[in-house]
Amino acid sequence: MALHVKTNVNGDAAEFLCEPDETLLDALRDRLGLTGTKEGCGTGDCGACSVILDGRLVCSCLVLAAEAEGRSVRTIEGMAKGDELTTLQRKFLEHAALQCGVCTPGFLVAAEELLRRNDNPTEEQVRYWLAGNLCRCTGYDKIVRAVLDAAKDMREHAHA
Amino acid sequence: MRFESPSTVAAAAALLAEPGARALAGGSDLLVQMKSGMVQPAVIVDLKRIAGLGEIRETPDAFIIGAAVPGAALREAKALRKAWPGLVDGSKLIGSTQIQGRATVAGNLCNASPAADSVPAMAACGAMAVVTGPNGSRTVPVEDIPVGPGRTSLAKGELVEAIRLPKPPPRTGSAYLRFTPRTEMDIAVASVGIALSLDADGTVTAAKVVLGAVGPKVIIPEAAARALIGTRADAAALDALAAACSAAATPIDDKRGTKEFRIRVVGVLARRAAEKAIERAKGK
Fold it and tell me: Among A134, B75, B90, B117, which is most exposed with the fewest C-beta within 10 angstroms?
């Protein structure tokens, strides 16, 4: 029996039909065409499917699509304004913080949420916050440097 | 499969009495079990639309943590963290930031894993589970909910709607420590939760010691608490505590650790957790 779900995605009203056991990840990708959110493990271990659900960073593979009724979801598609990348996104490019790119949307969503809560994180705080995001290419150092540099840049611009 | 999101605990209990019904709080265990084919629920009962279950309430004598409160919210609850840091020690070790955004301590309890991090931690703090079912409510110590790996004492239709923690007496400290091969994203090989209270001279007046991951469910060795009570937790008392914990442990060998290692390390963890709890009781 298909369920009719009305929710909000990246600030816009969205609705879709889904199966009761369908995940939010599958609904975002297959029902709404928002394929920026990636599936890695499908069991909440890798963070590739990270989204913000009502202000909390979650793995969308561990959320049922039906749970999104009346909630607000933020995905990677809500980050850049058209062609204009955010500071965090630019820093990922500058620091070469990606290779294959499958983990990148998850890292960006997770790191943006960290910087929203803490504009001056230590390297240790960045590493712990991102411990649930796995990357098999970069060895993490470039990602951590990109996040720290983005934080620095954003602080300087906030004070300018 | 049906998806239901009742708005009252009574409606949730009625749905959970149906054949094949499963409660959904954070979903970090249930969805993984569904995906692997381990469980195929006929009805999923989402608890997160029930008023109050997403909140931490503070009354004059207790904290009441609703069944839908995620670990991240526990870490943000300053008064609770100050009163029972040992509980937060345990809950914050469960999974990643993403898992913390969803997983609940009530769910961790009802999943009944012997290695659950929040269970020894909250049991040490004297946490009670508020259980509601078709025949009304009852309140039981959290350690009475899991009865073995993946099995609970909950009757058909019953759910844990909240975890109730008493306000601590003065000079009370609590701590939870676990051993894992990795620093993060791992499952306890052995763990210890301790809560204790001191008198004005620093003598231990009350203690509860709870062992995790060294038996089919948590172990609460009375001899371990007795080793601390009446002492100032000096070297001899800590030796006796460690020995009592090792003696009470009944672990298995598995890929995460041997029986011998677990028996030894649970004593070491108990000693360190006691030292940390005492520092906290002294307000350090």
Answer: B75
Interface of B with A (CB under 8 A): 1-3, 5, 24, 26-28, 31-32, 34-36, 44, 46, 48, 70, 72, 95-99, 101-102, 184-185
- Is residue B81 in some structural domain? yes
Q: Which domain holds residue B101?
A: 55-166
Note the pLDDT tens digit of each residue in A59-113.
Answer: 999 999 999 999 999 999 999 999 999 999 999 999 999 999 999 999 999 999 9
* Predicted pLDDT of residue B41: 98
* Tally of domains within chain B: 2
- B43: nearest CA in chain A? A20
Could you report the per-residue pLDDT of B226-244, keeping only the tens digit for each? 999 999 999 999 999 999 9
C-beta of residue B187 within 8 angstroms of C-beta of residue B115: yes
**DSSP assignments along A4-67, one per residue:** EEEEEETTEEEEEEE-TT-BHHHIIIIIS--TTSPPSSSSSSS-TTEEEETTEEEEGGGSBGGG
ipTM, interface predicted TM-score of the complex: 0.96
Domains contained in chain A, CATH given: 3-78 (3.10.20.30), 87-159 (1.10.150.120)
Task: Report the distance separating Cα B203 and Cα A88, nearest Å.
Answer: 53
Tell me, what's the pLDDT at A159? 74
pLDDT of residue A115: 98
Q: How far is CA A55 from the centre of its chain?
A: 12
